[in-house]
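Sample 1 of the test manifest.
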Amino acid sequence: MPGNDIEKAKADIFSEAIYDLENAFIRAVADPDKNQQRVLMAKFKSETAPKASVYLEKFLDKNPKDEVFCLSYADISFFAFFNSYLGGGELEVPEALKDHPRLTTLYEKVRDEPKIKAWIEKLLAVLNLRRVCVLYIRILHTFVLIFQTFLNEMPQYKLTYFPIRGKAECIRIVFAIAGVEFEDVRVHPQDWPKLKESGLSPSGQLPILEVNGQILTQSKAILSYVAKELGLAPEDNFQLAQADMLAGVISELEDKLNAAFANEDQEKKARNLHLQ
Ligand SMILES: N[C@@H](CCC(=O)N[C@@H](CS)C(=O)NCC(=O)O)C(=O)O
């Protein structure tokens, strides 16, 4: 602490100068008008702070002692201001002090006091942790935005059928293989007459596929569309026709099987099951 009254007065002068500087800084950053804030900050950096540094440097020059205020509140307020407001809390000497050797020495002297250094390092660790968190949050936010864009561009699929495998299962499997989400609506037979009456299915049958609100019917047309959309159909037209051909055969088999099950007459059912 400053020894005699003169030294105490000098410490007060020094810390008053820092106090004024602090006020100028706060006035600049606290201005509600963003443009004015920018103007005031630029003025603070280009005029106010350099002028104050020259004044403080001169003030120290008049002091023959190297240990200016023996680590008084004046040194601490000087260091705290330049470290936090102009040095970004880092350990390096702030740019604003570089041309002022006495102020630089004073800054280094205060900074290198072990307890002060430990304190600054502790703050820096918190600051760095915060920076890392902010960085992670920004990266995460970017991913969320990309994912949202991707989701918005992805068609929304809704497949409606009965609670059986039947004519919808191969379509469901194609979605599963492609790893694409779809709404798997399974209509209870009791609810079917009402739904059928609603005209949701243009053919009056299921399955239907809604793609962003547009409706497709016919299981094999749906299958072929979904497979093409999700990259599971041959690119070659001949191979595509072969795939359609095979799907057509299966479709016929399914129809015959359905007809067999639908037939009340047990004899006809047995005959149908042999698929004639
Ligand atoms: N050719 C159509 C046939 C569809 C079909 O027969 N659907 C049946 C279930 S497998 C159905 O909706 N039955 C109820 C009805 O016709 O009211 C397709 O392959 O999608």
